[in-house]
């Protein structure tokens, strides 16, 4: 049985519920692995995440970030911008020159 998490009469969510689409999670997890292949900036971002969490959790965070980027691109009709995805996370060589 699933129960609500409550404190002082406020409901904070449910415990034990699976949320989200498992197929999309798998697809964006695969996309994250492919995004890392041959992409040094993305690898540096992943290493930064791994300082705070495990490798699997860091890959999930990157997959989630790619999912949000895909949603934004579909919503606004814009194109993928890797620099914007990793903005503030990794200083690339071109950013250091300017």
Helix content: 55-70%
- List the uncertain runs: 90-98
Question: What is the terminal separation in angstroms?
Answer: 58 Å
Kindly provide the radius of gyration, computed on alpha-carbon positions and rounded to a whole number of angstroms: 17 Å
Task: Summarize model confidence as the mean pLDDT.
Answer: 83
Which strand-content bin applies to the residues?
5-15%
Q: Order the strands across the largest sheet as they lie in space.
A: 1-2
Q: Tell me about the largest β-sheet.
A: 2 strands, antiparallel
Instruction: Give the CA-based shape.
Output: globular
Overall description:
The chain has 98 residues and is mainly alpha-helical. It contains five helices and two strands, in the order ββααααα. It starts with a strand and ends with a helix.
Compact summary:
With 98 residues, the chain is mainly alpha-helical. The chain has five helices and two strands.
Write the layout of secondary structure elements.
Layout (H helix, E strand, L loop, with lengths): L2 E5 L2 E6 L6 H15 L3 H11 L4 H22 L5 H4 L7 H5 L1
Antiparallel strand pairs: 1-2
Helix pairs in contact: 1-3, 2-3
Characteristic terms for this protein:
two-stranded antiparallel ribbon, 98 residues, 5 helices, mainly alpha
